[in-house]
Amino acid sequence: MKQTLSTLALALAASVIAFAAQAADVKNIVIVHGALADGSGWRRVTDILVGRGFNVTIVQQPITSLADDIAATGRVLALQDGPTLLVGHSYGGIVITEAGHDEKVAGLVYVAAFQPDRGESLLGLASSKPASAMNIRETRDGRFLYIDPATFPNDFAADLPKDEAAFLARSQVFAAKEAFAAKVGDPAWRTRKSWAIVATADRSIHPDLERDMARRAGSDITEIDASHAVFASQPEKVAEVLERAAKALSR
C-alpha cells in the first residue's frame, strides 16, 4: 500500500512539473543529435526555426556513456529561459527519454529515434527488428563504434546529395558500446506529451520499430518518406513538426 501511494505521489509530482513547464509559450527547442553523426546536419532545421522566432540549441554530447550524454543535455537545458521542447534523433531518443524529466522540458519529439521503455536499451530494441543495412565497425580498441564511411551514404543518408552524405560520414561522432548497451529508467514520455517522426525509408532503424515504439508511448506520429537523415533531407517537414509541437504545448 505504501509503495502504491509513493508511486501515485511521484506520478502526481511529475504531472505538476509538466503542467508548470507548459504554462507559458514554448519558444526554446533543444536538439540532441544521434550517434554516428553530430549536430551540424541540423543546420537547415535550425535556420528555419530561428526564422520563425524560436531559440534553438543543439547539444553536442560526447556519446561516451548514456550518463555523460544525459548530463550534457542537462547543462544545455539549464541555460534555457522558460519551457523547452526537447528533441532527439536516433540514439538521441534514448537520451531525451531520461533527460526529459528535467523541469524545463514541456514535451518531447522523437525524430527517427529509439523511444525506449523502462529497462530497454538501444541494442535490445535494434535487435528486436533489425534494420535492412548497417555496416558498423569497431575501433581498434574495441570500445567505440562507427559506420564505414564507404557505406555511410547508403546506410544513413541515401536521399542526400553525395557530397552532403560524405560530409556526414566524415563528421560522425563515434559511439561507445557502453552507451548503446545502457538501460533506461522510467521514461519521460510517461509524464510529457510526445511526438514522433517515422522515416519510412530508414535503413538504420526499422521503420516498423519506430512506429511500434511511438504507438506504445502514445506519441503523435508523422510519417515522412526519408532516410535516417530525415532532419537533413527533409528539414522543412521536420521543422513543421517541431513548430506544431511547440505551439501545442503553448497556451
Automatic annotation (TrEMBL):
Organism: Shinella granuli
Keyword Protein transport in annotation: no
Top-level taxon of origin: Bacteria
Signal peptide: 1-23
Keyword Signal annotated: yes
Span of domain AB hydrolase-1: 29-241
The entry's keywords: Signal
This protein's name: Pimeloyl-ACP methyl ester carboxylesterase
InterPro entries: AB_hydrolase_1, AB_hydrolase_fold, Sec-Metab_Biosynth_Hydrolase
Pfam family, one: Abhydrolase_6
